[in-house]
């Protein structure tokens, strides 16, 4: 075995996907399967991983040097010290309003963990059901634990909404006095080598004995890593909401700003309430495609729309009363869509300007991800409005998390690509 290949495992909402990268970072294999029962079933997570890993061509499987895992962030499981699940997992979208009083006593209301839909809320429900001596593990951390036969670790990003503070590198001080302090994982940074695969797993899955298990990241961060962004690149996620991301030297602060740490690098960004969800309210995906074909992106629509789904915005403008501007609606649907896409491009432009004001250098090109990235007319419109090249990346998140594994076996493969590597990839 040459141990030069990197495996990424993405545990998503509906199933699991694998990706294998070669030593140059090129995606050479991807496969996927859906959960037989669903996201709540940890047995399914394991079954899907087992099935996909065993089905890898042996020429790939035997040459793997490292594996890293991402999962839906916030899907939380209670297990015993030997990793055995005590029940089904609580999925990331489940809120636990009955935990509000306990949440208020533990974290301040500005913290991401304070919401009744945070991991902390689900953690408190699991503790009230199973008692304080359980282990609380998120999906990706539990699967890493399974491969290692050691469930003590938790990756930093997956545990932010459980209360982990990235900047202070600590749990809230209020946790120290709780009876369930020991239920929390020991936090490690994303990209850190956790150990080698357990002998039992290596044998049953046909994996090399020396395979390194590397702390992964969240599904959202894994998606961003697929962009292979260089130091001058911006990343725009055109999903239900419009999200701008960029690697920076350190964290930045401001309304609607998030800071993540992935593979040893700061990844900061801003999320607007505007985005694809407004388009979906007005048009089906098929209509979006058909109507977009009729748009000439070299021209302006003449409309001035602000496609917010409702009143209120955090980023790029922090104004809880900001009103959507969805009228006047022209007779032509394609002209209307032209105006909406243009409106979103102007919010994106403002977003990059806002990030610059907050200390993030302006990008020299933008790489687009998400459902809207597949729209060529929108890409061209944005290129004209942003005044910089706009590229598209359609690699799956599994390929993004695999880059963390690759970085562990070939450190010259820095997570922030050089310009040449980035060009070669896209
Ligand atoms: P998320 O994961 O945030 O829900 P996706 O990345 O799956 O979102 O993208 C879905 C969004 O992409 C929808 O809001 C939809 O309106 C938008 N979308 C789908 N097709 C197109 C298209 N051809 N042009 C622009 N937007 C599109």
Strand ordering within the main sheet? 3-2-1-4-10-9
Let me know the CATH homologous superfamily of the largest domain: ATPase, nucleotide binding domain
Q: Biggest sheet, open or closed, and with what strands and sense? A: 6 strands, mixed
Instruction: Tell me which CATH architecture of the largest domain applies here.
Output: 2-Layer Sandwich
Please report which band the strand proportion falls in: under 5%, 5-15%, 15-25%, 25-35%, 35-45% or over 45%: 15-25%
Distance between the termini: 29 Å
Give the beta-strand count. 16
Mean pLDDT, as a whole number? 95
Helix content: 25-40%
Named once each, the bound ligands are: adenosine-5'-diphosphate
> Helix and strand succession?
EEEHHEEHHEHEEEHEHEEEEHHHEHEHH
Q: Name the overall outline.
A: globular
The CATH class label of the largest domain is Alpha Beta
Structural class based on helices, strands and sheet pairing: alpha/beta
CATH fold annotation of the largest domain: Nucleotidyltransferase, domain 5
